[in-house]
Amino acid sequence: MAVSANLDKLLDREYEEYTLDKLVDAPVAALAGVGPAAAEALTRALGIVTIGDLGRSQLFRYAAAIVALVESEK
To answer: Which of 3, 37, 60, 61 is most deeply buried (CB count within 10 A of its CB)?
Structure first.
């Protein structure tokens, strides 16, 4: 099944035309709001270099799960 989504607001302009499979390998700085300093801090502290690394990070998955559970109770 093909999936399409408009991710323009989530990405820096130069990455807007990337396919999803290419975005996984794009640097985390490709995400809107993640500047060079934040990207470097993620790399230094957690070894996160790509969007895929960020999405697969157990710490971020745990945090997202906790937030989702809290919000589902509202």
So the answer is: 60
Dihedral pair phi/psi, residue 61, rounded to 5°? -65, -45
> What's the whole-model pTM score?
0.85
Write the pLDDT tens digit of every residue in 16-25. 999 999 999 9
Per-domain residue ranges of the chain: 8-72
Here the tokens at position 36 are: 């060079």
The CA-atom distances, in angstroms, between 73 and each of 22, 35, 64, 69, 70 are 36, 33, 14, 7, 5
Q: How many H helices and E strands in the chain?
A: 4, 0
Q: How many CB atoms lie within 10 A of CB 31?
A: 19
